[in-house]
Amino acid sequence: MWKAALKSLLGRKLRLLMSTFAIVLGVAFVAGSLIFSDTLDRSFTAIFASSVGDVVVRPVGGQAEDGGPTARTVPARTAEQLTSVPGAARVDGNVSAIGVYVIGTDDKAVGGFGPPALGGNWTDAPAGHGLEGLTITEGHEPQGPDEVVLDERTAERGGYSVGDEVHIVTAGTQEVLRPTLVGLADFADGGSLNGATLSAFDTQTAQDLFLQGKDAYTDVWVTADDGVSQEELRDAVAQRLPDGFEAITGDDLAEEQADSLLQALSFIRTFLLIFAGISLVVGGFLIVNTFSILVAQRSRELALLRALGASKRQVTRSVLLEAFVLGVIGSTIGLGLGAVLALAIRALFSRFGLDLTGSLVFEPRTVVAAYVVGILVTMAAAWLPAWHTARIAPIQALRDDIAMPETAVHRRVVAGVVLMLLGASLLGLGLFAGVPHAGWFVGAGVLAILLGVASAAPVISHPFLLGASALYARLFGSIGNLAGENSLRNPRRTTATASALMIGLALGTTMAIVGDSAKSSVDQSIAENFVGDFVVSNVFAQPFSPQVADQMAAVDGVERVVRERFVMADHDGDTEGLSAIDPEATGDLELRAVDGSLAELADGTVALDSGYADDNDLQVGDTMRWNVPTGPVSWRVVATYEENPLVFYPVLTTIQTLDTSKFTPGDNALILFTDDRPGLQSDLDAVVADNPVVTVKDQDAFAEERRGPIDQLVRVIFALLGLALVIAVLGIVNTLALSIIERTREVGLLRAIGVSRRQLWGMVTLESVVISLLGALLGVVLGVGFGVALMYSLRDEGLEVISVPWVQLGLFLGLSVLVGVLAAVFPARRAARLDVLRAIYTE
């Protein structure tokens, strides 16, 4: 039986290998996401290990929740006192800042998206355990306020060489700098900043730029003497520190920083694994179809094996053996393609600034996961046809008109209805009940509904297939009638093939509705709430220099400038955003109070978006506890207000409150009120002409900027869903090709009675179009339901508009016809080229 199974497999190599393509893509997603995430882990772990000293001294609250430095510092005198600590070889102070952008010779910022734009002082202090950090590879260290050192990658991308004048913008009090590049730096061991940019000045200059001239440091590195462990040195340093400062080993700090960043990037792995699951589910339909047809075609062969003494179990095992071999082949190819996918992902992220270097990381678990997923999915998909095979009696299988037994119609309908009801319940719980891990409920609900529709599709789709058959007969005569009857002949196979396309288009339709609704909600919210005439902001959503506001206020025609700042802080253990304005600006922004009085907004108080207040069971008079750089604080709620797009976070306080809390000063947005004179936009643009990371936008441009990230996300998701659609199209090709083989004698008889090659080609194409249209219709209908339900559940999150892009959905249906035509090319060509006499005598 083993030999017979393997011989049968080798005899159908092309047909079966086509089925492995679905597994290849699914496994490639799984392997690629694991490889890329492991590469991320190693890369960031290595860079942080090279970016900390043996012991790091920092102020308590010296690091904000977003990882950036705060305004808290270590005085220089404290650093000097540490030089006498037993076991300390040297002490070096560091000045660090974020938002120091290098502007290339093309007047565009180098990097900026994702990895930070770093600035600070140059130091040759060794990293922990004696590791060599950044070193000067060309030129010399910076000396004086007009010199700077850049990392090699940043200089290369910016088009700068040693001796050039470098254009730099900062979020500090000096907005634009033009120092001379005197040195290039790099890691001696070939490490990388992973896309971050670094501008290093001498210590005095860095203190003037980023610490308002204070003789202090962001943190201090203490290097251990030979034979002194990091823990021993940490304990000795801690004894010398005054209250408000802490000592931490370099190993602990490196792990802390790496874990924090990798946690923030964990969505990448989750995102890719979701699409791996989608590909595997869609591929499962293709594999079930393929094995069902192939086993049906081999029914006489299997019946003879039964007649010769093979048991039902042996027949089932022979089919599963073929599935196992295909699973191994598909997993192997998928693993290799996963490495290519990981390289592609790395290249994609490099375009957004995440510039990973070094080789890919292959952990053993990646290989194990690839083979387990590929083999299990293939064998699970092949089990049902294998089980059906064992049920065929030998005498029945020897008949010429043998067909694989179909599950009773009522059982399929009952199973489908049960799955759809279960899915609807899970979807409702995930969207509307506020259950923990709601995403898992939503995903399980969508999957159950899709499987339920696929199960009941032979019944659900019967009216459509009848209508298509009648329409074909009217439009295309006897050939159209034949195509319609062929679709009706085996509705389970037709709908199973269509179901693969249904899943891809259902998810695509859902995302189209989500994207269109989100953009419409943004447009409506801005149209209803936009105040002022212009918005000034950083294209990287980072703070910019407070100087910009002063310069804007000095422009003729600008009547008022409202500053807004955003920070991240800890609220009861969760990281949340804070917005801040000057108290008198609540009227300028036209904030409308729901409860309390916005006139009471003062230092040490907050006003809340009414939706946020309801979600968190907060009301006027309550106290909110926050952990800010200066320590724990309690702020009283004085008002709640209607949602406003110009207040970017739902908790609003005053700018002075943030300054008192020692957050790094820097504006995130400016609202300009002007007399709207002609040419004012050009004058405002001139203010930031040397600062390309800051832009001035009117209402339309502001709305377009807010829509941009939505469009980008939807495009990425459509690109990934496109792979699932490729599998679905391959399923149509595979099913039609196998169907032609199954109907070889029938095709020969049609040719014998006068059907031309062109007519035969048309018949196969019409069958393919029916399958594609059926899948598209089911997918669009389900996608509209999913999308509307999802957007309705988000109506309290500011997404109040439900917009269905009917033109785009019509395009989906039109493309499905094209998909059907293209998918039919190979099977139709095969059918048209069959030798008539040989086809007639085929068994």
Briefly, what is this?
By secondary structure, the protein is an alpha+beta fold.
Uncertain segments: 400-407
Number of strands: 25
Tally of individual helices: 27
Largest sheet: 6 strands, mixed
Tell me the strand order in the biggest sheet: 4-6-12-8-11-7
- Characterize the overall form: elongated
Mean pLDDT: 83
Q: Give the % helix.
A: 55-70%
Number of domains: 4
The class by helix and strand makeup works out as alpha+beta
| Relative strand content | 15-25%
Using the CA coordinates, give the radius of gyration.
Answer: 33 Å
Query: How widely separated are the two ends?
Result: 23 Å
Describe it for me?
It is built from 27 helices and 25 strands. The chain is of the alpha+beta class and 843 residues long. Keywords: Cell membrane, Membrane, Transmembrane, Transmembrane helix. Belongs to the ABC-4 integral membrane protein family. It is a multi-pass membrane protein. It is found in: Cell membrane.
